Amino acid sequence: MAPRQSKTAKRNKSQNGTRSIEPEVYSDSRAMNLLEDQPKPKQKSTVKKMSKLAVKKQQAKIRLYGAKNGKDYSEDQLKIPALNRAIVPGVKAKRGKKGKKFVADNDSLTLNRLVKSINDKYDEVNESKLEKARRLEEIRELKRQEIERKEQEKVDKLEGKKKELRSKASVARSARRKNAKARRAEDDDGDDESPKRKKKKVSFA
Q1: DSSP states of the chain as a string?
Q2: pLDDT tens per residue across span 113-152
């Protein structure tokens, strides 16, 4: 029967198997200095070299279609319309920044409101409660005037549309009347020219 191994011997045996071996070059300073003078080996490039056949094909494509500038654009960047989608003529899709609103040159009301409301955070530093209340009241008044103006514009637009429809209807009505008069006159002229029809008489024996 084999002799029984102690725990220490077992531990040493397992440690010996996992021990790493370092070359003496790294522990010797003189050898390290000699290694530093040596040129470092170049790393292999990760880019795969093209075969001769692939290069020939690429050159042929360049001769046919021209060389690419190295930039590929997506369909969104090129603004290409989606397939199987009707393009309405005369209707342009809005592009650019969303929520951008331009103030008209003669719109002093909106301009004043913007000027008063933009400097809010700077005015708050050194203004009394009374001044702040007055300024906020002015802004509210300007906003109210803007809303009233918008409502008036809506009403004017509606009235203009109604007037336009009425004028179109009156023009069409007068045209119909004129056509009816002309038709009636033609019918009257036709009756005068043709000989009067004799009434059929039926006699019983």
Answers
A1: -PPPPPHHHHHHHHHHHH-----HHHH-HHHHHHHHHSPPPPPPPSSPPPPHHHHHHHHHHHHHH----S----HHHHTPPPTT----TT-----S-TT--PPPTT-HHHHHHHHHHHTHHHHTTT--HHHHHHHHHHHHHHHHHHHHHHHHHHHHHHHHHHHHHHHHHHHHHHHHHHHHHHHHHHHHHHHHHSPPPPPP-----
A2: 888 777 666 666 677 888 888 888 988 998 899 899 989 9
